[in-house]
Amino acid sequence: MATADFEIESDEAGARLRLIGDWTTAGLSRHRGRLGPRLGRELGDRSVKALDLSDMGRLDTTGALILSRVLGRDLDADAWSSRPEAGRIYQRVVKVECNEGKPLKRTRGLTRMFAKIGHGVYDIGGEAILSMAFLGRLITATGSALKHPGRIRWPAWVSQIERAGLDAIPIVAVTSFFIGAVVAFIGADLLQQFGFDVFAVELIAISVLREFAVVIAAILLAGRSSSSFAAEIGSMKMNQEIDAMQVMGVNPFQALVIPRLAAMVIMLPLLTFIAMLAGLFGGALVAWSQLSLGPDFFLQRLGTITDIGNHLFVGLVKAPVFAVVVAAIGCRQGMAVSGDVESLGRRVTAAVVQAIFAIIFLDAVFALIFLELNL
Amino acid sequence: MTGEKDVVIEVEGLLSQFGDRVIHEDLDLTVEKGQILGVVGGSGTGKTVLLNTIIGLKEPDGGVVRLLGHDMAAATKEELADIERRTGVLFQQGALFSALSVLQNVASPLVEHTDLPRSLIEEIAAMKIALVGLGPESHHLKPAELSGGMRKRAGLARALALDPELLFLDEPTAGLDPIGAAAFDELIRSLADDLGLTVFMITHDLDSLYAICDKVAVLADKHVVNTATVSELERSDHPWIREYFHGPRGRAAHRTG
Fold first, then answer.
1. Is A130 among the domain residues?
2. What is the pLDDT of residues A181-228, one digit of tens each?
3. Is A348 inside a domain boundary?
4. Is A101 part of the contact surface with chain B (CB cutoff 8 Å)?
């Protein structure tokens, strides 16, 4: 491919422009776009009366655009007579350039920033109303599901229980195991300094049973299931599957949201219990290796903690609440997906972030309530 | 045929299969420079698979594909880059990048393949958008905000961004209203004439065949059964071609076309 170039020959009648090489995107790319301004500079106020095209290779619309910017319309139509196909391209570009209005100027960065803040504030209100609407529909759908248990979609429940619950067991167990182990390590180190090694068991048991097991399980499900609920329902929405359900008289809440919600409410307490066992196991293992407190002693010591039943209850009672939060936020964000891919990504992110935030916030609220109740 | 140099697409003995299911067997096809070739065939005859094979998205399971004189299977990286620069593809749904505005979409091949400055690229992209008949108000819209017809036009503008010699169109008029489809046909014909494009166009639209195609290749029985002008195909004895052109829709298109 020959690089684009030009020569100008001047006489009394006007300038004669000799085009050399390929006036194409690739040929002009070699000059990094500086050829057009150079042609304009060298031409000065002379106007081109004729073209010499004998050495010109190809001309494409990019070349024509650059030429037309400099030569404009005062070029005779028969200047291109030796290369009619190039002339057609040139005329077409000139025509398009004349018809085109001024492109809309983008608003300035500062204005856009304020507009964005305004939209953000406005959207918070809208989101709150939509969330309430979702909650209302969720409650009525749950009510009607309870009233007509015959219409419950058991296969959907079972498949959701498997995917969102059973498949999560390994990751929940392993994570909780390590959390229990870490608590034991830190506790062992601290308590050993005071000579209270044996209290490491209390530390592990109370922290795992009351807080860590349920919060870790819920946060893992928020990352795992809340996002997949939002993505699944969101892509169904983009694919108009939700619309198709509605015209068939199927309530999408009954078909999509309730099974996911039920699966979460059933499985999160179970996962929490598994997380408790795994956390205690991790703690016991560290206590054995670091503090030489054997498994027998660990179990015996566990039994002597006076209100261990309360700690277990506090941990497990939070699970269904967190389950509702994880499932509802995931489904709610999925339902809010609009037509484009970007909104899908935004909604999935929002589902995870909101779910994790809500879990931690509710955990704090629970802590206050249980403190007042002396549990 | 006027010599080797004028053949832009050459497919010889193509075999395509998915598992045991054979889509194409012994398929031959040649497209000459400057031609607008329409490819027709029933649903499931592998029109889109053929397109994907020619543009290199799918490797042929047998046979040879030569594009712009390069054997696709043996092409070096530089040759492939050259082919990419010289071809443009309009996918069925437009396949615009949803995170970018229309102007950025059209500019993206230029940013990728040239060293031109940003401002000039935007001017070129604006010119291409005007070339396909979209106004400047569409520049900063996102693909999700466009109607179906506008999305097709924006997709065409992006396909034309590098001034390709060869344009692939996958059902360009599908989903457009008849007026919009006719306008799109007219646009492709005039662009092809003025810019000297070779066009490979998959279509179901009989009106498009009559209006703009120089030749029509018919895919049936796993290969190209005939490549000829529309009027020659009307006289064909092949049962599917007869059904296609002499069915109720074919007759209607013939009357108007």
1. no
2. 999 999 888 888 888 888 888 899 999 999 999 999 999 999 999 999
3. yes
4. yes
